[in-house]
Design a protein that fits this description.
single chain; alpha+beta; globular; binds zinc ion
């Protein structure tokens, strides 16, 4: 079963993209990457912000995220869809986020 992809911190994303982008371009384009859906931002809480970079993730753009309280990893759970909430009339949703906190499989086994 596909468990999910690890999301990365901004620092880790920078390391990954090193070589493809020079520093200044990268700072300017970080927002662009987000806007162009090359990466997506996952806010667990104001101190824990992660980014997932993988175009494949967007085959299922709305998916749940899992935050492991033990190893502090954030995973994209592509196989876990987020149900569209039934909003009152006149409300329009632009984003819906589901972050599940708990213990991941790897931590559970050790
Ligand atoms: Zn874990
Ligand atoms: Zn994700």
């Amino acid at each position: 079963m596909l468990v999910g992809r690890h999301a990365m911190s901004e620092q880790e994303i920078r390391e990954q993209l090193k070589g493809n982008y020079d520093r200044t371009t990268f700072y300017r384009s970080f927002k662009t990457l987000e806007e162009n859906k090359i990466l997506h931002k996952i806010v667990v809480d104001p101190t824990i912000v992660r980014y997932a970079i993988d175009p494949e993730v967007f085959s299922n753009p709305v998916h749940a995220h899992f935050y492991c309280e033990h190893c502090k990893q954030v995973l994209c759970l592509e196989s876990v869809p987020v149900a569209k909430p039934a909003l009152p009339e006149g409300f329009a949703a632009t984003a819906s986020e589901l972050i599940i906190k708990g213990i991941c499989k790897e931590c559970h086994q050790s």
